[in-house]
Amino acid sequence: MSKIKRVGIMGGTFDPIHYGHLVTAEAARTEFQLDKVIFTPTGNPPHKRYPVTPAEQRYLMTVLAINDNPYFEVSRMEIDRPGLTYTVDTLESFYKELGNDVRLFFISGADAVLDILTWKDVDRVLSYCTFIAATRPGYPMDKLNQKISQLKELYGREVYPMKVTGLDISSTDIRRRVKEGLSIKYLLPPSVEVFIQKNNLYR
Ligand code: NAP
User: Fold this and answer.
1) Residue 165: which pLDDT band, with cuts at 50, 70 and 90?
2) What is the DSSP string of 36-91?
């Protein structure tokens, strides 16, 4: 009998990807004994109120960032799918691609969990995967725990919070720093920093 594979799906806009994301994925991999983590940059996120960097560039930055970790992969699934990006479609496609001998873990920021009731087919999303909610230092855990209890009551599903010390870095802050001409060194991999400079992103 084949062993069930434990696969992490690291969902995010990654605009840009930074060390906080990489530390989060590695923490999830070890804490939840994942066989691999597939970074899946969003294509056309329905919830963004500001223009995001073109998907192809966010994808390339993700490829550069994960290059030295043998347990990390990147999927083009969301960026190649036309229309708005919904996690429910992504999880269904991953089951089709990877087969049924897998257990999927969806890793994202805790803020995504606070909003999850607005997501398309949230009941199916929670039934398809084990949801891991990464929190930054100082994150208001009360709000998150309340939401986790509510989701358990409504759908009978657990969401696992995961405290990530290194997640003190944020894409918003990196974009602001670039715009203001401040250094972003040591916040993200050097290859991603060079990509941002060469492509004149976030100016
Ligand atoms: P977001 O709202 O931009 O991010 C929320 C917070 O979580 C930010 O502080 C962000 O930090 C952090 N974060 C995002 N992804 C993370 C990750 N993988 N690990 C650790 N922290 C993370 O969230 P988003 O990136 O657009 O969306 C997160 C995921 O939820 C994506 O896969 C998206 O497709 C999915 N989603 C689905 C629906 C739907 O199906 N209707 C709706 C919303 C989101 P940074 O800014 O530093 O990344």
Assistant:
1) confident
2) EEEEEE-SS-TT-SSPPPPHHHHHHHHHHHHTT-TTEEE--HHHHS-S---HHHHH
**pLDDT at residue number 178:** 98
Share of the chain above pLDDT 70, in %: 99
In this prediction, residues 193-199 reach a mean pLDDT of: 98
Q: State which of 10, 13, 107 you would mutate to test the pocket of ligand 1, scoring each by most atoms of that ligand within 8 A of its C-beta.
A: 13
Structural domain of residue 140, as residue ranges? 5-167
107 assigned to some structural domain:
yes
Q: Is residue 133 part of a domain?
A: yes
Distance 14 CA to ligand 1 centre (A): 8
The DSSP code for 196 is H
Question: With 90 as the cut, is the pLDDT of residue 68 above it?
Answer: yes
Question: Residue 29's domain is classified under what CATH number?
Answer: 3.40.50.620
Which residue among 61, 108, 163 is best mutated to probe the pocket of ligand 1, counting the most ligand atoms within 8 A of its Cβ? 108
CA of 179 relative to ligand 1 center, distance in Å? 22
Domains of the chain: total = 1
pLDDT tens per residue across span 94-115: 999 999 899 999 999 999 999 9
Q: Which two tokens stand for residue 159?
A: 């969401």
> Is 191 contained in some domain?
no
CB 120 within 8 A of CB 86: yes
Question: What is the Å distance from ligand 1's center to 13 Cα?
Answer: 6
